[in-house]
Structures are given as structure tokens and as C-alpha cells.
Amino acid sequence: MKQVLSLLLLATQSLAGTIKLVNRDSLGPIGTSNPNSLVGGTVQTDAPPLSSFFKDLKGPVGRLIYSSWQTLISPKYPTNGWWAPYAAGPGNGTAAGPFPYESSLDGQGVCFGIGQERSFDGTSIKVPTQRDWRASFNEHGGDYDDHKAIAFDTQAVAVQYFQDGSSMTAYLVPGSPYMTFEYKSATPLLTALNGGIKSFNGKVLSNGDTNSSIKLTAKAESETKGSIVAGDKFTGILRMVMLRDPGHQPLLDAHSGVYPVSVAQDYSISGNSGMVTFNWATKGTGELLMLTWPHHREVLQSPNSPQPTALSYLTLKGWMYPTLGNVWRMTYKLTDITWNAPRDVDPSCKESVINGLKYEVGQLDPSKAPAPNDFYFWGGTLAATSRLALIADHVGSKDLIDPVIKYLKASFGGWFSAGNKALPAYETAWGGVISKEGATDVWVDFGNGYYNDHHFHYGYFLHIAAVIARYDPNWLNQHKDYVTFFARDIINPSADDPFFPITRCRDWFAGHSWASGIANGAGSRDQESVGEAVNGYYGAMLWATVALGQEHANFARLLLAMEQQAARVYWHLYPSAGQDDTTNPYPESKFRDLITVGNVMDWQTGAWLFWGAQKVQIAAIQILPVTPVNEVMYDAGWVSNVFSYTKSELEDPSYADSWKSVIYAAYANAKPQEAAAWSAKLSDWGSGNTYTNELYFIGTRPNQSSQPICGTLPSNPYGDYKIQATSGKYVVSAADGGKLSASGASASDADTFSSAYVPNAGTLQLTRNKQFVTADQSGASALSAARATASTWERFIIRQKAGESQDVYSIKAASNGKYVRVSGDGSLVNDTAAEKDATGFRFVKA
């Protein structure tokens, strides 16, 4: 049995007056037009918000609910915020706040507590949710419909329970050490949920004992049950606080007379400096006491902060410490990187970048551009393709821009077609752009229809659109409003947009975004891929730059900087961080040794993913996509640690090159020359990266040594060759163009192969039948010249073999990363893990 945590109760009489605070949104809306022009029209999710919860907030257009809260126009409700479980059916899920508390709503009242069992299991830090108390009142009948939201803003929500003329309003404000309840003509009832009441006002209670305190009576009903109830109806404020340490009471008592009811946010940007201001509206008298997390303490300007020993709570995000004042000003350094890297490609890399660019652009055929069947995979692939146009611009290959744009437009056009499989539609129950097919199927596009991952999906979408618009102003003019619906979905800064909530995914107090939406009752908040969260705001920034104007571009820059800061604080792990460092959220040294977090949730943070357990996967998903703006996020210390931590998998050919590629790119921020050498071993860059982008990023890194970054990159021998094994035998193909074997006694017996360029590798084509040599992925079959077109299985990395004389090469198949050897019957098979065990070959000019 757990004992109920020490509780401090503070009561005051009713505080007269209604708080009035000018709405300080400093930015107007991006747009206000109706999204019903989307090709999918309008649709309603099968998981709408509880009608009872928002019923009195559904006013006519322009109705002002509270002068200090958000102006609501029905409907545009938060889907990804910390309190979404209050509103998403069935409405009783655990909310990720208001920290340091977690909470839930039931038919009788507000249940809340602070988890006290922080543990590390070797992979994750866990702080299981703990509900210690329920705040309610005697008159409430327990009907679930008899509670509702009466106001909310970007951080806080006010929930009211009501019965006839009695009510209790909970002001649920993240960062407040107190839980605050305003009673009107109601008899307060506090019920212990996690053990019995052991003492009250210093008197030890046993079963059946009571103890009165002016108006409140505590009763220990049993070892596991207890309640505190008022003797009569009460109008006034009741504040509850978990007293973790008796030494904290003086500070808590001193500031109990003032409490926050809402918070206004303001933003200001000057050059590359951005300031976010939190201004809490308060009632009562005195100086407001709030709590900070590590990311606040990094950027909070001139804080008036008592010593941490005066008050502290250890939460999943580390220690929360006190600070005084109802205004916080936090300053962030903003990047001025937009389309391309802030420096030119290193001369030693430029030729290879241009060769890769020519090859990869040459593969683009607008007639074969993919129809968009989903947001996520389509977006990642096409965004990587769109980088080719920007790189071509930067390196002066202007002739290669237009082929990329034509390809992008051919594919993007599917989003405007009613015949496309994936149709964007405006969802009317919550207010947002979703996949129409996903409105009633949570498995479509990772739950896009339930508002999962919108910043991931639409960041890619906006990146692609921004690149097209940059080079085709007519396309921009034609599609600007349509594409802007997607920007409004994720970066809307204003309550004056009648169709979208403010910054859907952003948790302004937690310091980062949440990817999880309303699925499963808006269950645990989580975000795996912080790299794609950053990219969401990067894509929005690019779109704003080309289509919306500098003010909204600056707002996106600010969101970008804040998400990158969160990545460094909560996703990047630093073994060297001090246990007592106030900006270190993870005192556990063994956890920090894991180098990178895979998933941040509301109750656990760990080095794991829902879908993969490899170190390279866990690290890479926090890095990708590789874009110029992320040189800010790839700090040298962390990427060096990532490289060391994942090195055993980087050296293992069984792990996918696609994950390795982004790790090498990030590592270039620390050691570009080494990164270039490792990158030269890749034969696949996945769907979200390209050879050109990889080498471009590496070649544009800060270069402290001034040594050539790329040096002399290894490459295949290109041209027409006869191939001779070191045994002296020549390679021939079966008469039908079948399997290859080292069986020719002389050059006159040998077949001729044309070796052609592909990035970091090459193809081998049998000249007499124009078929490409292919290597089975299993390595169980002999190589054969049997493919009319070349793809991954037809690529080979041919390099000088270590330990052999000049011009003796090893051949590695890209299909499985294995080296080729001559088997006992003379056939060539790709089944050798180590180069030293592979056969050496000479390439003799034909």
C-alpha cells in the first residue's frame, strides 16, 4: 500500500473581480479562408471531441468567451496538447499535466498526483502516473456530462464541474506548484485515491478518526481510504500542493495568495534573436510562484529564482525549480540558414557533387513521377528530390533545376486531383487538414486522420511546395491558398484563424511538440522523431519565406529554434553532463551513456522506438532529414558520441546504409574528412536522402583543419573491361547471358563488360546482350547478366583491395553488402562478409 503524499491545503475567501488581459497575439492569422475548397471537401472523424466538454465554447463567429482567453470560432480545438485526453472520448484519459502534476477527469471531479517512483530500467527513465487525490464537491451528482471546459489558451485550460447553483472551477496551469480550485456555493470534497490519510494538521489519524480545521474535516476511513470535506458550502479558493519536503513550506506559504488562471504569449524577433514572453494572468495578491524545467533555465532572462533547495520536484524532464514573477522572457538564437548551406561546397567535393547531381536528376522522368498515396512516405521521398534543385542552384548547375521542378510538379499535382487515392480534406469536428481516407481508420498514414504526426507530414509537404514555388511563380500564384491550408494546420499563430488551432503540435510549456493526436482517447503524449519535428517547422519556414511574408517566416524560425533546443536538451544525451547541472534533465549517468533518446513521452523517455531496436535506427530518426538548417542541431559533441556509440553497427554490412548515411552526414559537423571517407562506402541512401544531398552536406561543413574534405574519393574503374581473377582465369557469361564464372583461359575467351557510373558504385553490363549483371540479395546464387535495367541489385562497389598489389580490386554487391568470390565450380557468388576473404580481380581494358 502506498501512503498518500504530504498535502498542503490553503484556503482563501472569494476574490472579487474578473481578470481582464488584452489578447497579446502579436501576429495576425496566416489566413482565414475556408478550407472546404480542398479536393477532399469536408469530413468528420469518427473520434470527435466530447460534445459536453466543449458545449458552451461553440459560440457564433467572433464570440469572445473570456477576455483573457482564446477567442473561439467553432470548431478549432487542440488535438495534440497536454490536456487533449480531457476532450477526446471517452474523456477520462491521463493528461500530460499540468506538470508537476498529471491529471484526469472523471464523473465526480479532477484527479491528480505527482509520480514519485522515477526509475531507470537500462533503456528508459520511467515516472509512472500517480493519482493521489480527487477534488470535487458534495453537491455534484457524478453525471459525466456535468463538467466542461469554460476557457483555454495555448497552455492552460479551465474546467468547471457544476450542479444546480454549485460549481468548482479548476485552473489547470502548467508550471504551477499548486492545484487551484475555485468553489462557488459548493461543499469541497477531497478524496484520497492512493492510500489512506495518516495525519491532518499535525494530528495522527487512525481508522475512523476525524480532525477539523476551521471549515475542513479530514476522515481516515480505512488504511486505504480517506476524505477531506468542508462543513458547509464554500465560496472561495482552495489550493492544494504536494509537500515533498517540510522545508519547502515557507516558500509555498509565502506565495499562496496569488494564482494563475491563464497565460498570454507574445513573440518578438530582432535579427537572429527571438524572444518568447509568457505573461500569466493572476488573481489574488503577492508575487506569482512558478516552476521551471531545464529548457526554461537555459533561455530565461534575468530570472528571480529562489534556491533549488527552497522547492523542487523531480519529474520526467528533470528537476523543476522555483522562480518568481508572472512574466517570463526567454531568448532564442535563430538561424539565418534557409534554402542552402551558408558556405560553398569544398573544392575537393564539388566535382563529385555535380556528377551525383547529374546522375540523380537524369533518373527523374515526370511521366513516371509517383502519385501521392500518403503524406509521410511520399513527402520524405519527394522532399529529398526537391533538395536536388536547390543544390543545383548553389553549385551553378542551373540547367538541372528545371527537370527537378517538372518532376515535382507532376507528382504534386495529385494533391489537386479528386481521382487521387489520398485526398486532403478539412475535418470539421476538431478543425484541421487530414487524409480523408484516414478520418475513420487510424491505421491510414500513421493516424494522420486522428491528427498524429501532422508536423512530420506537412513539413515535407511544405518543403516540396516551397521549392516548386521558388522556381515557378505561376505555380505559386495558382496554388498558394491551397498549400497554405497545410501551413495553417501546423504553424497558425493566431486565435483569429477561424478554422485552425494555434500551433497544433506545440506544447509551449514543455518546450517541444507532441506527435500524438486524438487516437485511443488521446492517450500518452509522445514524439519519436524530433528530427522530423524540426523539419516540420523548417518546411513551414521555407513556405512562409516564398509565399507568406517575413513575419510568418520569422515565426516559423522561432518554432524551429525552440524545437532544436528541445532536441538538444531532451533527445541528445551527454555522458559528460553533470548530475547536478540545472540544465541536465537526466541525472542518471547510465541513461546518458545511451547517447540518444528514441522517444519522449509524458511518463517515460527511453532509447527505444516503437518500430526498431537498432542503435543506428534510434539515432538516425533523430537526425533525418538531412537539411542545411540542421547544422545547428548536429552539435559536434553529440554527433561524435553517436558515431562512437553506433560504430559496431556502422561497420556491419547487415545494417542498412540508409540509416548509416544520415549518421555520417551529421558526423561531418565534427569531422568532415572522416565522414566523407565513411560515406564513400555507401551504396544506398534510403528514400529520404540522396547521394548528392549527402555529399553536399558533408562538403559544406565548417572545416577547421582546412584540409580537403573529400580528398580523392574512391571510385569504380569506368569503361569497357575484361575481368580477370587473380587465379588468372577470366570472367565469362553463360551463352544465354546467365551466370558468371571465372573459367576463361585467356582474354580472347573473356566477355566484355561495360562499367558505368552510379553514385559511389557502378553497374556492369554485358556488352554482347546489353544485360546488366545482377547479384541476388541472399548471396546463394551466382551473379548473372540477366537484367534489362539496373536497380539496387545491379550495383557494385569496386575498390582497390586492401593488401593486394595495385589494380587488384574487390567487388562488393550493393544488394547485400557482401563481397564476391570465385566458388569451387568457378561461379561468382556474393556471400563473403570480409574483404580479405573475397577474390581479387583485375580490370583489363577491352
Main attributes of the structure:
single chain; alpha+beta; 43 strands; elongated; disordered N terminus
Topology:
Elements: E1 7-13, E2 42-43, H1 84-87, E3 102-105, E4 110-113, E5 119-120, E6 124-126, E7 133-137, E8 147-152, E9 157-163, E10 166-172, E11 178-186, E12 188-192, E13 199-200, E14 203-204, E15 210-213, E16 216-220, E17 226-230, E18 234-242, H2 249-254, E19 258-270, E20 273-284, E21 289-292, H3 294-299, E22 313-315, E23 318-324, E24 327-333, H4 347-362, H5 376-395, H6 401-412, E25 424-427, E26 432-435, H7 454-471, H8 473-491, E27 506-507, E28 512-513, H9 519-522, E29 526-527, H10 530-548, H11 550-571, H12 589-592, E30 599-601, E31 604-606, H13 615-623, H14 636-650, H15 657-667, H16 672-679, H17 691-699, E32 719-725, E33 730-733, E34 740-744, E35 753-758, E36 761-766, E37 771-774, E38 784-787, E39 796-800, E40 809-813, E41 819-822, E42 828-832, E43 841-845
Parallel strand pairs: 2-25
Antiparallel strand pairs: 1-18, 3-4, 4-7, 5-6, 6-31, 7-12, 8-9, 9-10, 10-11, 11-18, 12-17, 13-14, 15-16, 16-17, 19-20, 20-24, 21-23, 22-23, 25-26, 27-28, 29-30, 30-31, 32-35, 32-43, 33-34, 35-36, 36-37, 37-38, 39-40, 41-42
Helix pairs in contact: 4-5, 4-17, 5-6, 5-7, 6-7, 7-8, 7-10, 8-10, 10-11, 13-15, 14-15, 15-16, 15-17, 16-17
